Amino acid sequence: MDTQLRKGILDVCVLAAIRNEDSYGYKIIKDLNSILELSESTLYTILKRLEENNMLTVKSTTYAGRTRKYYHITEIGLNRIEEFKNDAQEFVKVYSFIMKGKEQ
Amino acid sequence: MDTQLRKGILDVCVLAAIRNEDSYGYKIIKDLNSILELSESTLYTILKRLEENNMLTVKSTTYAGRTRKYYHITEIGLNRIEEFKNDAQEFVKVYSFIMKGKEQ
DNA sequence: TACAATACTTCGTGATACGATGTATGCATA
DNA sequence: TATGCATACATCGTATCACGAAGTATTGTA
């Protein structure tokens, strides 16, 4: 997929990956893998940003001797997903324009 | 619309705006206005990039004493629009994942 | 004689994805 | 026991991008 378009959905994908249950970096990558390939550097950059924007909270734990950070979505994060619905509708409108060369 | 998502469609929108007939900056803004607001600085940046990427060609003219640059889409530009179709399909897949929390 | 509309240009800034690289542990297997 | 792979997170630097601000110049209009 085109890099720029990708940028528009990565954030929300990560939020969606932790919406139903808390998860951690490595698992998020595996879970998203079938729908969207994503490197570690990219994911951790996004997770950091999402935390700064209060879209998720972090809890550090230790599992089998390894550090593991669990991410939990916040109300603001859930709202972000909802807003994406509207954006997707706009996207479809613009898509129609692009394909048919005319609006609606 | 979210800035990042916007970035993913701006290029293709501009290409779509000149697909059926050559056009110039000021007119492109007016034409796209109903579907997508777009400032001059943004558009001219995009047009320059599209030219550098050989997605369009430019022909300078003078109309009523004012400089007017006509942009003409190339084969590569048309291909870009076609590729966007595939990207849009992927987008829809990812959208389903985000909304339903599951693939397919 | 102002002011709006037309038309294009340049500069600087803040976001962003991502490759490269690094650190550290547990586990299988040769 | 040594090697390599999977797990797990972190940081740095770079390229790309949209966009506001500001500027230049002409035509038409109130």
Protein described:
Two copies of one chain form a homodimer. With 104 residues, chain A is of the alpha+beta class. The first copy, chain A, has a single domain, classed as Orthogonal Bundle (Arc Repressor Mutant, subunit A). In chain A, 60% of the residues lie in helices and 17% in strands. Chain A is built from four helices and three strands, in the order αβααββα. Chain A has a three-stranded antiparallel sheet with strand order 1-3-2. In chain A, β2 and β3 (66-73) form a beta hairpin. The longest helix of chain A is centred in the last third of the chain and has 26 residues, at 75-100. Chain A is elongated, with a radius of gyration of 16 Å. In chain A, 29% of the residues are buried. The model of chain A has no long low-confidence stretch (mean pLDDT 94). The interface between A and B is medium-sized, with 33 and 33 residues. The structure holds a DNA duplex (30 and 30 nucleotides).
Primary descriptors:
homodimer; 104 residues; alpha+beta; Arc Repressor Mutant, subunit A; 3-stranded antiparallel beta sheet; 4 helices; 17% strand; DNA-binding
* CATH fourth-tier homologous superfamily of chain A: Winged helix-like DNA-binding domain superfamily/Winged helix DNA-binding domain
Instruction: Indicate the radius of gyration of chain A in whole angstroms.
Output: 16 Å
Largest interface: pair, residues per side: A-B, 33 and 33 residues
- How many structural domains of chain A? 1
Order of strands, main sheet of chain A, comes to 1-3-2
Assigned CATH class of chain A: Mainly Alpha
Shape of chain A: elongated
- The secondary-structure class of chain A comes to alpha+beta
Assembly state:
homodimer
Secondary-structure element order of chain A, as H and E?
A: HEHHEEH
- The second-level CATH architecture of chain A is Orthogonal Bundle
Mean pLDDT of chain A: 94
First and last CA, distance of chain A:
25 Å
Strand content of chain A: 15-25%
Helix content of chain A: 55-70%
- The number of E-state strands of chain A comes to 3
Q: Flag low-confidence runs of chain A.
A: none
* Continuous helix count of chain A: 4
